[in-house]
Amino acid sequence: MKKITTLLMILILSMTFSTIAFNSSINESYQISKSDIISEGAILINADTGQILFKKNAHKKLYPASTTKILTALIIAENYDLNDKVIIDSESPFTIGSRIYVHEDEIFTVEQLLNALLIDSANDVANALAIHHSGSIEAFAELMNEKAKALGTLNSNFINPSGLDNADHYTTASDLSLIAKAFYKNELLMSIVKKSTYSIPPTNKIEETRYLKSSNKFLYSTSNNYLLDYRGQQIFAKFDLVNGMKTGYTDMANNCLITSASSGETNLISVILNATGRNSYTDSRKLIEYGFNEFSLKTYYSKNDFVKEIEINNFKKSKIDLLSESEINVLLKNNYDPTKLTTENVIHDIALPIEKESVIGEFNIYYDKNLIASSPLISSISVDNSLLLTEETEHFSEDNSMNYLVFIGIFLKFLIAFILWRSIITLIKVKFDR
């Protein structure tokens, strides 16, 4: 009996150690280097803050293919209501590449076209939306570049709204991540790219329903015909943590993929450019799993939390609260050194008046003296040129009449000083006149 018990104990212990070793090897495998990413350009960011967690040739100019369409969609979504009508122009039906075969004078809603743009990646729809908005592809491309620069891009140039090949149509993984971050914050657009299918009912020109299907296999593919060679195993493409974004392919760009994914309170975006075959999916999955498994979320402030009090140089030298514009968090490597983590509040040069909720500073987070995250700080109240507006904050509970009394008191002091000065000048003048 003792021998049997001893054997069982040995078996249990060996299984336990084997499990620990197995899990350890899995955790170790989440570490990645640039050589593990086959694609030419790649980046992984915190979707909430833009913090960069991994990059490879992130600033190299590459072709974006249909990932371009997230910028097109962002501009359209910010300028139109979903129920607005779009009448197809005479040019768009002749667009090449992926399309839903729109007809001249066919009528759609903006909602239908945004779904066709992002789910079916329709080039004819991209052109139709651009022409509807700006009158021409060229004019819309100018707007695309203005919008991209406003989002912080540095090395991008957009020629068309679809991403069709053009030597002058390029971006970088870093720039595209900034556009994707803005796209991610648009709830409407994210609700579209989460879907794998969509249908457009008959229109004034077409009697049949159009059935659309996403090319983003992360969303649905459990087919043996599309398996990924991932970490030495054959796996389905479907990745449950993924909640959207955009694929792309052209001859010049090869395969491109923007992926957004969430786990708990952590939200990530990966960008892959110039990948071959299915490597856009395997590389993206490596980045996403690296982010979720090798980093932990540290939250400093929730939205509208008090961060700092500052003094405003008006008559009262009054104080106002600075609040966090949104949740302030950072992703830190699991083995980070707490002594290397520092923060600072940076306040802008302040000019009155200040509008309520205007950005007047940043909360910066550093690791080993390198800036890893920055988030805006906003004013809790409005401030005019002379007196603080008092009705919206507990710091300024005095009655408005008290503010006027202070003002009158200052005015009277100046008036008395002026009268005394004039009196002295008059006496001196009278003395000299004698």
How much β-strand is present in the residues? Answer: 25-35%
Gross morphology is globular
Annotation field: number of helices: 9
| Overall pLDDT metric | 87
Number of domains: 3
Cα gyration radius (Å): 30 Å
Describe the structure.
The protein is α+β, with helices and mostly antiparallel strands. The protein has three domains: 28-296, Beta-lactamase; 302-396, Sandwich (Peptidoglycan synthesis regulatory factor (PBP3), Domain 2); 399-434. Helices cover 33% and strands 26% of the residues. It has nine helices and 18 strands. The chain has helices spanning 2-29, 69-77, 110-119, 123-134, 137-150, 173-184, 187-193, 279-294, 400-433; strands at residues 41-46, 52-56, 85-87, 107-109, 197-200, 210-213, 227-230, 233-236, 242-250, 254-263, 266-275, 295-301, 306-311, 319-324, 328-333, 341-347, 359-367, 370-379. The strands form six sheets. Strands 2-1-11-10-9 form a five-stranded antiparallel sheet, sandwiched between helices. The protein has a five-stranded antiparallel sheet with strand order 13-14-18-17-16, with no helix packed on it. A hairpin with a 2-residue loop joins strand 7 (227-230) and strand 8 (233-236). Helix 2 packs antiparallel against helix 3. The N and C termini lie far apart (132 Å).
